[in-house]
Amino acid sequence: MKQTRWLMGMPITVEIVDASADAGAFDAVYDYFNYVDQTFSPFKETSEVSRINRGELALADACEDMQIILELAEQTKQETNGFFDVWHNGKFNPSGVVKGWAIDEAASLLYYRGFQHFYVDAGGDVQVYGRNAHGQPWRVGICNPFDLSQIIKTVTLDDRGIATSGSYMRGDHIYNPQNDADKLDEIVSITVIGPDILEADRFATAAFAMGKEGIYFIESRPGFEGYMIDRGGRATMTTQFHTYVSQ
Fold first, then answer.
1. Most buried residue, 39, 44, 59, 133, by CB count within 10 Å?
2. Rounded to an integer, what distance in angstroms lies between the CA atom of residue 145 and that of residue 138?
3. Can you tell me the distance from the alpha carbon of 155 to that of 161, in angstroms, rounded to the nearest whole number?
4. Nearest C-alpha neighbor of 62 from the set 72, 50, 74
5. Do residues 160 and 243 make contact, with C-beta atoms less than 8 angstroms apart?
6. Structural domains in the chain, sorted by start
7. Predicted local confidence at residue 175, as pLDDT
8. 138-147: long-range contacts, CB 8 A cutoff, minimum separation 24
9. C-alpha separations of 242 from 54, 154, 237 in Å
10. Closest by CA position to 88, among listed 77, 79, 99, 80
11. Which region, left, alpha or beta, applies to residue 135 given φ > 0 means left and ψ of -120 to 50 means alpha?
């Protein structure tokens, strides 16, 4: 069974191969994403993020999940030498960690319901478990950032996460916390494969903020592989990325 619904400003697709899949499983996932949107969206006036930014809600009084996000954000900031920061010009925007975390939590929800073969795809960032309907690893395409109708690489994954950060879909929404004047125009996208989507997504965001150095940061992290495309259309990949590429 497979469904796509539009939430959090993007298409979210869930496919469950297990024969026991039912409508209730899909509803549970999409209800969860709706909760995340209502809580963490910087664009909804009633969200906790908006209330924090208006000074109506103290960080210490925010919900338990917000505390988890704050801890993850600080951990990521430390691990990336400050290239990841949820505060910008005095405003709080945890989107760079919330998306991967939400996908991971939604996938865990399905896993703990007993499903073994499925994926959750939110705006192109994907967590996969098990195998597809043909009993093979899941195949995930990487778009050409200069022509979204083209797939330039296809990777095969099981029990992994893959995330792409870039300016080609949403414009300039990532910034360099160490240099506000940096236009981040050296690269157009960086795709990261990690042990799960939470890890892949948070490091993809930080790596993009690093510019051309981002791919070397991914190279330095055990268990991660990356594929970067610069503004000239040149691709650079980590040493073992090729092991995931479908022939």
1. 39
2. 22
3. 11
4. 50
5. no
6. 2-244 (3.10.520.10)
7. 45
8. 139/246, 142/191, 142/227, 145/188, 145/189, 145/229, 146/188, 146/233
9. 47, 10, 8
10. 77
11. left
Residues of the chain with pLDDT under 50: 170-176, 181
What is the residue whose two structure tokens read 């990261």? 192
Q: Which 3 state secondary structure label does DSSP give 176?
A: coil
Q: What are phi and psi of 190, to 5 degrees?
A: -140, 125
Q: Compute the residue count for the chain.
A: 247
* SS3 readout for 130-154: CCCCCCCCEEEEEEECCEEEEEEEE
E strands in the chain: 2-7, 10-16, 87-88, 91-92, 118-122, 125-129, 138-144, 147-157, 161-166, 187-194, 225-230, 235-237
DSSP β-bridge partners for residue 230: 187
Q: What is the rounded distance in angstroms from the CA atom of residue 45 to the CA atom of residue 157?
A: 38
